[in-house]
Q: What sequence folds into this?
């Protein structure tokens, strides 16, 4: 029923300009990117314009949603829709990462053994690149990118694991504070989470610099470099997104937007943060460790 | 922004925004559904035009109209326009229009996001068309000669137009994922009280499964083309054996998406049939539960058989055997669906209005396409058929009846509901017969061409294949032109015609027939009680 138990109807928003602005911003950004990577000068301007428009869109759209929420237009059922929507969005993200993890497993367990002459393709190996041995890490028979040192697990990556896991704990602590209507604990918890997230990104940036300048481990370092930077890079991008979302939530917490029973935005961001956390554990195990 | 809360006693029934704003800023599932359908119709004609050029070129052996790269680019565009531009948006349009009406919901669960998922499509279409246009300009690089599968290493060597195509695919992916989230949430959260999942109309069930598949597989395609982009521009070697990568990896990523995509295209049409056949046979759907089970089985098995598109790449014997057995297994639940449709018609008091004609045509022709699919699933046989015109005939027999005719059936079935007018039954029947006969003349001979050894995706062919190609091209012209009649019927119905009753068809069951024809701007502001 569109009318729920407290007699309030399911909220259908009025016509909104944001979706179409979203379309224009996405089109401008991607058109600009396509031109930029092909060296067409005007592309840069389009990318910047598109991203600015996108930022404007985010501000505008969420401002509308927040004001609708604060003026109690949403009944419980709208809240369920939002929650389910966020869960399915995270599910789609899981499969996005699954594509990259799947590629890593495929390369390590199927493609490289083939190149190393396993199975009935041994003739190919003998003729084309008989000196190549199956190994991991590898930059392939062509040794693309030259000799490199792989990234070890027990330096910065282990520290980063600790940072992200702690941030998962601090955000839960913040959630406890929120549920007990303890605003100070909420704000402190969120602040700690953001600090840990930002520290993580900084460590990751340092690690990339170290890899490029001292280990000769680059995006061009064959399949190891490709999978390493693709997986950690997309994860890092998601951490940045998550940190921005956390900052928005921190701002709203300081304004006192959340109540112990009505804080969907907080939950959504917390779920997203935990998701990013879990992806990192996968990265630590399969990219760094083994 | 002004805000309006709808309450059940003062619903804004005839409060439709006016002008351009109504369409650009819409948060109404009916308007967005209409937009989806109009977009799909436009893309149907664009994709159809590219198909006409392909068939005109293949009318006679030799190269007459288009050079080989342009020919292959047309093949690429035809596939992408039809799959992502025509069929998926049309199915999403039906979902937008019908799901809230069918489950007694006031709108889709997330109306603003609904509009976003539609409006990303024109952006994607722009990028897609740009990818076709860019090579005609100086410095625009080469044509996309890879086909819609975009296999590297060829796709890595294509010029900048490929980047436009990659971003078009990203946009299409975002649109599909947002639409799917919306549909799942609507179906799980917005059903009228008393409507349990197992009382849900079949069309809703098919879309629930379709949306689930989309959320699972579209991100993988997005990941795959992202790797392609990085291989093209940033020096990675995902698909380059010299760096330890593998071009075959892309094929796995692509078909992990591509095979479930077949069911994504098929299932909404199965849902339409599950309404059309009971209506015109005047009997309830035979085996509702088995239908749901069959659909879940198709979706589940369909997720894990993708590599049957790649038998010839040199997989191990164990792998190809697994993919063969899995693929052939799918024919069991699909056969069950067909059985249920026939059993629904059995001893029904049938009449053959246009939607029913399409439905019966689908049951026959889709079964035919399914059977040639079983032939292709058999590994040793497929080694011969692979990349021949037989494959082209097979998937057009599955996708035209399985997806497109189902959408036509849905459009004719619900057109009276949407417009408030009955369509011209006589013209619609002429459309059906020209369409179906044209389709069969086009694609039936291609089976023989393929078995005789004519490869696909090649602009020229040996003169021994001439007769069947002439026949196929003549059929294609009939088939293509018949769609102008569809356009005419749709426009005529929108403009006027015999007034449709709320229950436009005598045997029609379901909530969507209890609202007006056309429905009020907001329907089911008070949800009905389902017993």
A:
């Amino acid at each position: 029923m569109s009318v729920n138990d407290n007699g309030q109807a399911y909220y259908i928003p009025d016509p909104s300009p944001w979706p179409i602005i979203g379309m224009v911003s996405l089109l401008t950004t991607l058109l600009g990117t396509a031109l930029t990577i092909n060296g067409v000068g005007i592309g840069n301007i389009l990318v910047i314009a598109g991203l600015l428009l996108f930022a404007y869109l985010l501000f505008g759209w969420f401002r509308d949603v927040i004001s609708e929420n604060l003026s109690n237009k949403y009944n419980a059922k709208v809240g369920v829709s939002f929650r389910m929507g966020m869960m399915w969005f995270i599910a789609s993200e899981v499969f996005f990462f699954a594509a990259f993890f799947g590629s890593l497993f495929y390369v390590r367990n199927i493609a490289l053994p083939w190149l190393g002459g396993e199975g009935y393709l041994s003739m190919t190996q003998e003729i084309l690149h008989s000196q190549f041995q199956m190994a991991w890490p590898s930059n392939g028979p062509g040794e693309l990118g030259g000799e490199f040192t792989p990234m070890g697990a027990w330096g910065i990556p282990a520290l980063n694991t600790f940072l992200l896991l702690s941030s998962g704990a601090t955000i839960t602590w913040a959630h406890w504070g929120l549920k007990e209507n303890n605003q100070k604990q909420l704000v402190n918890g969120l602040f700690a989470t953001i600090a840990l997230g930002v520290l993580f990104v900084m460590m990751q940036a340092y690690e990339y610099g170290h890899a490029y300048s001292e280990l000769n481990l680059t995006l061009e370092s064959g399949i190891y470099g490709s999978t390493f930077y693709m997986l950690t890079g997309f994860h890092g991008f998601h951490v940045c997104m998550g940190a921005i979302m956390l900052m928005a939530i921190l701002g709203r917490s300081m304004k006192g937007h959340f109540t112990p029973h009505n804080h969907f935005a907080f939950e959504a961001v917390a779920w997203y943060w935990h998701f990013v956390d879990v992806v990192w554990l996968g990265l630590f195990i399969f990219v760094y460790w083994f | 922004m002004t805000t309006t809360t709808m309450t059940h006693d003062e619903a804004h029934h005839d409060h439709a925004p006016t002008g351009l704003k109504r369409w650009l800023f819409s948060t109404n599932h009916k308007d967005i559904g209409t937009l989806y359908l109009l977009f799909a119709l436009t893309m149907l004609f664009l994709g159809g035009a590219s198909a006409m050029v392909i068939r005109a070129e293949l009318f006679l052996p030799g190269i007459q109209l288009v050079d080989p790269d342009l020919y292959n680019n047309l093949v690429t565009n035809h596939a992408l326009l039809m799959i992502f531009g025509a069929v998926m948006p049309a199915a999403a349009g039906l979902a937008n229009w019908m799901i809230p009406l069918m489950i007694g919901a006031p709108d889709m669960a997330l109306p603003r996001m609904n509009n976003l998922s539609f409006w990303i499509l024109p952006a994607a279409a722009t990028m897609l068309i740009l990818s076709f246009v860019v090579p005609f300009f100086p410095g625009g690089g080469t044509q996309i000669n890879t086909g819609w599968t975009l296999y590297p290493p060829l796709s890595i060597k294509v010029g900048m137009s490929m980047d436009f195509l990659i971003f078009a695919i990203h946009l299409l992916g975002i649109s599909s994922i947002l639409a799917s989230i919306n549909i799942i949430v609507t179906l799980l959260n917005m059903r009228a009280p008393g409507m349990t999942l197992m009382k849900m109309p079949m069309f809703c069930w098919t879309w629930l499964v379709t949306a689930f598949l989309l959320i699972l597989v579209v991100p993988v395609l997005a990941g795959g083309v992202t790797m392609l982009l990085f291989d093209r521009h940033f020096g990675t070697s995902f698909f380059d054996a010299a760096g330890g990568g593998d071009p075959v990896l892309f094929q796995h990523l692509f078909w992990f998406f591509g095979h479930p995509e077949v069911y994504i295209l098929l299932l909404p049409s199965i849902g339409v049939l599950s309404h059309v056949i009971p209506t015109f046979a005047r009997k309830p759907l035979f085996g509702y539960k088995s239908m749901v089970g069959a659909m879940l089985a198709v979706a589940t098995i369909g997720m894990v058989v993708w590599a049957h598109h790649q038998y010839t790449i040199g997989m191990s014997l164990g792998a190809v055997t697994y993919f063969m057995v899995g693929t052939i297994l799918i024919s069991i639940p699909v056969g069950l669906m067909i059985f249920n449709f026939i059993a629904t018609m059995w001893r029904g008091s049938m009449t053959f209005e246009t939607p029913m004609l399409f439905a019966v045509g689908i049951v026959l022709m889709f079964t035919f396409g399914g059977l040639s699919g079983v032939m292709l699933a058999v590994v040793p046989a497929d080694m011969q058929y692979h990349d021949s015109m037989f494959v082209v005939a097979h998937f057009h027999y599955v996708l035209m009846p399985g997806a497109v005719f189902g959408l036509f059936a849905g459009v004719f079935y619900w057109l009276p509901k949407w417009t408030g007018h009955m369509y011209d039954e006589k013209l619609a029947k002429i459309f059906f017969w020209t369409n179906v006969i044209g389709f069969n003349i086009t694609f039936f001979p291609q089976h023989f061409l393929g078995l005789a050894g004519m490869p696909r995706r090649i602009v020229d062919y040996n003169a021994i294949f001439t007769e069947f190609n002439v026949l196929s091209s003549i059929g294609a012209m009939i088939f293509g032109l018949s769609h102008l009649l569809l356009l005419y019927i749709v426009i005529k119905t929108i403009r006027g015609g015999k007034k449709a009753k709320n229950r436009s068809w005598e045997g029609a069951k379901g909530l969507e027939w209890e609202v007006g024809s056309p429905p009020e701007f907001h329907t089911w502001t008070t949800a009905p009680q389902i017993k």
The mean pLDDT of chain A is 92.
